[in-house]
Specification:
With 75 residues, this protein is mainly beta. Helices cover 8% and strands 24% of the residues.
């Protein structure tokens, strides 16, 4: 589903109102391209695709260009 922002820019959005990660009702949503759904914004900081400095997700860019993929570190 596409929604139009105040400036006229269109962005993709999903229709789910329940977070598929925790099962709770979503209050502050983030569009997650990795699981193709809206999720609670608190889950992003634990994902390896979340870039803390810019507060953005690298998943879409990595999907388009696999050379940009970050390694999956195991602790």
């Amino acid at each position: 589903m596409m929604i139009t922002l105040a400036g006229g820019r269109q962005v993709e959005d999903y229709a789910n109102t329940e977070c598929p990660v925790c099962g709770e009702e979503i209050h502050h949503a983030v569009v997650c391209r990795k699981i193709d759904a809206n999720i609670c914004d608190t889950h992003c900081r634990y994902c390896r695709h979340y870039m803390k400095v810019t507060q953005k997700c690298s998943y879409a860019a990595e999907r388009k260009n696999p050379a940009l993929a970050m390694p999956d570190f195991k602790y």
